[in-house]
Amino acid sequence: MQQESDGLWYWAEYFTFQIGDEATGKYRLNVDGYSGDAGDSLQATGSGDFTHDGMKFSTYNNDNDLGTTNCASDKHGGWWLNRCYKICLMCTGKHKSYTLPARYLVDSRMMIKVNP
Fold first, then answer.
1. Which secondary-structure segment (H or E) carries 24?
2. CA-to-CA dists, residue 8 to 41, 86, 87, 92, angstroms
């Protein structure tokens, strides 16, 4: 993730990053084993309201979040939303990461490596 204010890149890596199937889990996210310098945006500590781990994928026409509104519709992007988000790389407007000092992102990359 590249922070807007200073242009620096930050990273988050998860030892476990699994996405469930559509039929039984609605693409439920399972993450564990964070390392990096971006802060753990997918497994919030403290209040569980923003934890993305264990959440189903939400879109504007398939509301799977726990919020009182359709967070994906409100934020114009699909993601593993809980009561809206701690991070949403697919939402329109300025992307936010509440684990970075300046919060706003100008760029992000998501890379997935298959474990043997």
1. helix 22-25
2. 17, 20, 17, 21
Domain boundaries of the chain, sorted by first residue: 12-88
- pTM (2 d.p.): 0.84
Domain spanning 12-88: which CATH class is it, in words? few secondary structures
Does residue 95 register a pLDDT over 80?
Answer: no
Q: What is the pLDDT of residues 41-61, one digit of tens each?
A: 888 665 667 788 999 999 999
Give the separation between CA 52 and CA 69, rounded to whole angstroms: 17
